Amino acid sequence: LSPLVVGPVFLNTYDLFPALLVVVAVAAWLRGHERTTWVFVALAIAVKVYAVVLVPFVLLDTARRRRALEWMAGILVLLHLPFLVTGPGGVRFSYWLQLRRGLESESLGSGILLVLHRLGLVGVTLKDEAPGSRDLVGTLPDVVAALSSVVVVAAVAYVWLLYRRRRHERVAAAAAAVTAFVAFGKVLSPQYLTWLAPLVPAVSLDAAVLLAAALVLTRLEWEEFVKRHGGTAHWGQVLSWWILARDLVLVSVFAATTRRIRR
Q1: pLDDT of 70-126, one tens digit each?
Q2: What is d(CA 151, CA 183) in angstroms, rounded to the nearest whole number?
Q3: For 205-208, which contacts have Cβ atoms below 8 Å and span 24 or more sequence positions?
Q4: CA separation, residue 30 to residues 22, 142, 193, 228 (Å)
Q5: Nearest CA to 210 among 224, 221, 197, 222?
Q6: d(CA 99, CA 130)
Q7: Contact by Cβ (8 Å): 103, 141
Q8: H or E segment at 104?
Q9: For the residues of 113-151, what is the DSSP string, one character each?
Q10: Angstrom distance (rounded) from CA 64 to CA 201
Q11: Of 189, 252, 257, nearest to 6 (Cα)?
């Protein structure tokens, strides 16, 4: 039902493909098929790097950690090899571009700064940046972007510690880790909610309801943007309250998934 709730934003990129690979990896993990899990985690990382948050959990549940790392690293190298041979500079540029990206205007940190800007408490500047996003630029956004990356690592580590104590909630752990990457990262595109759609509803009813609210807010945000500005301005300039509300709901989704692990 998620595509019907979110609308065209859900289908305008290839994010359904890595989401499918992650689902297969989690299903194999649940059934104890270790090698299949390693293969599909590596495939998912190669397609969309967010799946890397699953690696600490998969390694925790296998006694053959060195073998698991060898399999995943080998698959990643194999998949990258044709591109490294034909265009090593392009591969290097692609990864470097993603690493150096600034604070994207729809992220949680950006939502907070944009609302503070609307209230006249801080000044921020929006600028079109590669690869096709509008970012907040300046010293303060750069600091918030760096802090966002630290928060992602800390949140995934927190989920890992919770799961380490009670290794009986694999779906909740996977959903919480992916939600941490989406909710706290320095980049948050609306289609990232595609990654959560097949995981979060399997955790608990309250998590599913919160995700549905985030999906609805994304849809309303998009429709309001188009209605008011005809697609000529950017969401970050005109809908900062919508962005912040949706991002805070995603933080609530993270809280709901981690609560399931604690219980």
Answers
A1: 999 999 999 999 999 999 999 999 999 988 899 998 999 999 999 999 888 998 888
A2: 10
A3: 206/256, 207/175, 207/253, 207/256, 207/257, 207/260
A4: 12, 39, 23, 46
A5: 197
A6: 12
A7: yes
A8: strand 103-104
A9: HHHHHHTTSS--EEEEETTTEEEEESHHHHHHHHHHHHH
A10: 31
A11: 189
DSSP single-letter state for residue 1: -
Report how far apart, in Å, the C-alpha atoms of 160 and of each of 66, 241, 249 are: 19, 32, 22
Angle between helix 16-30 and helix 34-47 axes, rounded to 10 deg: 160
Give the predicted TM-score (pTM) of the model.
0.93
Q: What pLDDT is recorded for position 228?
A: 63
Calpha distance 137→149 (Å, rounded):
16
Is residue 140 within 8 A of residue 102, CB to CB? The reply is no
Amino acid identity of residue 195, one-letter, is W
187-198 pLDDT, tens digit per residue, is 998 889 999 999
The closest of 197, 193, 244, 201 to 221, measured between CA atoms, is: 244
CA gap 22, 58 in Å, rounded: 12
CB 219 within 8 Å of CB 7: yes
CA angle (205, 209, 212) in 5-degree steps: 140
CA count, 13 A, side-chain hemisphere, 44: 25
**DSSP helix/strand/coil, 192:** helix
Residues 6+ apart with CB under 8 A from 198: 19, 22, 23
Distance CA 8, CA 31 (A): 34
Residue written as token pair 């630029």: 137
